[in-house]
Amino acid sequence: MTHAVWPSHQPPTGRRPVQPLLKLAPPVQPDTSSHIYPSFSPPKDSGKATAIQRNPKQVREEKRRSNQEVLQFAAMAAKGETEQNQNLRHQEVGHKSLLQSDALYQYILETSVYPREPESMKELREVTAKHPWNLMTTSADEGQFLNLLLKLINAKNTMEIGVYTGYSLLATALAIPDDGKILAMDINRENYEIGLPIIEKAGLAHKIDFREGPALPALDQMIEDGKYHGTFDFIFVDADKDNYLNYHKRLIDLVKVGGLIGYDNTLWNGSVVAPPDAPMRKYVRYYRDFVLELNKALAVDPRIEICMLPVGDGITLCRRVS
């Protein structure tokens, strides 16, 4: 999700398993000798140079290995493991919230989210939960947040980079008016088609312009055309973290002044505050540098106002002011 978004054989890392929420055991200390917490020796330049500054061939190889690890992780999740290993994995990767209390998060879902979740979103959430890579999906509480946010800003013309099965896409389609439009980009149409029948049944497919392929070339073409500058009310990005800055450089010209860009996974499983030697999965460690770099760049960008929220895996809203 470099690709516009994750292909079917390369699931992204920021999205975590959908509901039903697992009932977690009390926190345990990670066993760094287990396959769930593989040992990791930071490179000599760790803390001094980000992955972007490494040799391009090295970066590609690290990314390939990280993506392979995600695939293996998803396969383990699909087959099931021992209760102990499930608990360890769940605690490390995180669930649908950064809240310290699982009971509190469950309370939010059962009190505020699920009772008001549209039937189509519930159906898509449950379908996606059966997919081996359901860690890619938007959480139910974040879907509710996006839906309400879009209504508050009266969004009509929107864009989404990173679709997967379309849960956040459906939340957007439900929020915008009947003549509203969503330009949705993902390099994997197969995943999108999992949710498409539900979107069609809800009578919302006419709002969506799905384009399969990398997003960066499409964005470059839109900027070159000139007619798309400042035309989008809202843009949601949940794709390849190593391209977030590249997206931002382009999207800032496409969103209107007063419009919003939302970047998902900006707290990256809480790893943004983890010490360099903290045990974490390779893909979490690899993309952590890119997320940190994005967060630093957004914080000093004079063209936007920002708000980082601990919803889902962290979402940063950027309002264009100039």
Which features does this protein show?
seven-stranded mixed sheet, alpha/beta, 10 helices, globular, 322 residues
Kindly describe this structure.
Strand 2 (181-186), helix 7 and strand 3 form a beta-alpha-beta unit. Strands 3-2-1-4-5-7-6 form a seven-stranded mixed sheet, with helices on both faces. The protein is an alpha/beta fold. Helix content is 41%, strand content 14%. The model is unreliable at 1-52 and 75-95 (pLDDT under 50). It is built from ten helices and seven strands.
Write the layout of secondary structure elements.
Blueprint: H1 56-79, H2 83-93, H3 102-113, H4 119-129, H5 140-152, E1 157-161, H6 167-175, E2 181-186, H7 189-201, E3 208-212, H8 215-225, E4 232-237, H9 244-254, E5 255-264, H10 282-299, E6 304-309, E7 315-320
Parallel strand pairs: 1-2, 1-4, 2-3, 4-5
Antiparallel strand pairs: 5-7, 6-7
Q: Looking across the biggest beta sheet, what order are the strands in?
A: 3-2-1-4-5-7-6
The proportion of strand residues reads 5-15%
| Helix/strand/pairing category | alpha/beta
Shape summary: globular
Low-confidence region ranges:
1-52, 75-95
The residue-averaged pLDDT reads 80
